[in-house]
Input
Amino acid sequence: MAEIQLKGLAHSYNKHAENPEYAIRQMDHIWKDGGAYALLGPSGCGKSTLLNIISGLLASSEGEVLFDGVRVNDIPPQERNIAQVFQFPVVYDTMTVFDNLAFPLRNMKTSESKILTKVGEIAKILELTTVLNKKAANLTADEKQKVSMGRGLVRDDVSAILFDEPLTVIDPQLKWKLRRKLKQIQEKFKITMVYVTHDQLEASTFADKIALMYEGQVVQFGTPRELFEYPNHTFVGYFIGSPGMNLMAVQRCEQGLIFGDTVFTLNKYEQQCLDDSDSHNVKLGIRPEFVHVWDKPNGEAHLSEVEFVEDLGTYKIISLKFEGQTIKARLQEDQKVPHGQVYISFPEQWLMLYIDEYLVAKDGTYE
Amino acid sequence: MSKTKNNKAWFLVLPVFALVAFSAIIPLMTVVNYSLQDIFDASTRYFVGIEWYQMILNDSRLQDSLLRQFIFSGCVLLIEIPLGILVALMMPKAGKWSVVCLLVLSLPLLVPLNVVGTIWQIFGRADIGLFGWALNSLGIDYNYAANPMDAWFTVLLMDVWHWTSLIALLSFSGLRAIPDAYYQAASIDRASNWAIFRFIQLPKLKSVLLIGVLLRFMDSFMIYTEPFVLTGGGPGNSTTFLSQSLTKMAIGQFDIGPAGAFSIIYFLIILLVSWLFYTAMTHNDNK
Output
């Protein structure tokens, strides 16, 4: 069991170049002991790089990695008490499933009797008992991936397991099954697990807390709900949710902000922050789920035009033309599909202010 | 629903069939034909059944030749396969030196067979050859033209020099194809270098090694040009391999009948041994 701490971590693959490009930019982060975490982000944002730095397969060019407060930068992966599961299942083809699971234990000179009980126990949890004597080469992809996980779980000394998009090659119907298994194991053993993925659904079903990475930095670290309701950064708003947050590039005006001809007023704190900043990069964001659509004029509602409606089975997404920009709204389940002109309103509570892409929190805590 | 049969398709296959028949099937059947008859001239021939086959199989000189051939191919495989893998493992994985290694390794493969024989024939001579001269200067009495052991040693060394590259190049490409995740997983599992070789590299090399073993077996079993140029089969018959005996019989003595039977037997042995190798190396795949 271990807490993983990253201190001033940065990594560049070409650090000797004149203008090194950083895959990981200056980062401080803590993964608490026994937690289930997801590292979410688009392809190429540095998530796998970060994972490999934690496991020691890659040495970071700057900063420190601490396990329970102890610096491990110079400790090779095999001595870091960490297991890693890769995107493609890694099994030792010529060995049986049993030998695969016993392999790390045998490398540590564990007694055969202990191996027998330990492998048996893990095989039972992973539901591999029936294939223990089968050659690993002849397993299905999901069984192979379970074997790769099992090799991490059999070791008593493993304090954290890192997963690098482990379900990529698994059939969709087996994905949720395996994900749930993972979650059960996590709850049972209380092992720190860090799960890298680019799939928000995978991240939010597995993890207690999600670290969302963008361009080599963790832009937000929070529960799936926090990421959804209070996206810290416009990228979080865009990346989380389907479809992502509606963002409107607004201008300053006397009453607050103006978008086209529509004026938005801000609360006192937000206005204060706006006044303190001289940035022209000001945006308002609202999730499609929180946009209200009305048939008739209604107090604060603004006129807009229906462009098209996407039926996603259980719900519908309506695209609206508002002040020249497309705004998406999620229709309530029982709501009639409107045509032509409709009225939309943005509940103040869910209208987020972004200055220089970062959120201005409504209650005054400027994160 | 029943499939419509369209027999016109056969006409499309016909040209290929004719070509294969002309270039392979008919010549092979000619050999079978010769092997079953005793032919004196175009109008005088006798059907002899399997007599030629019996004669060939009972010929002690040919039995010796066959034994030599097996020993030679065995030695070739035992030396070249492990050595080739070792070379591949030690090669730089990428960069300039990797390219240099690949180029150097490819060189022997580009040299024509009789040139290889000539190179070693001169290289091994004690008077004008560097290799022979060096050995003799070290006090080793080396003379491949007079001493059967020396002749064997030289023929083997020549083959190793010529063909180990092939195994090394095949293995190198096989090693490069192993995803990094395997090495990373092994390192996290605390596998030793030997375990990495035994459980990751060797299994992943299996398919290229299968090709390598088959190619080297077939080639070495049919070896002709190089020992012919180097030793001419001597001293005595010590380096006379099967193909050389066959050539002598077919072209030197013009014994077409026995040579035909010999060819068929030769062909069947290669087929059988290749099949054995193939089966032995793949039978574990589906357990």
Q: What stands out?
A: Residues 281 and 356 of chain A are 5 Å apart (CA to CA). Chain A has nine helices and 22 strands. The mean pLDDT of chain A is 84.
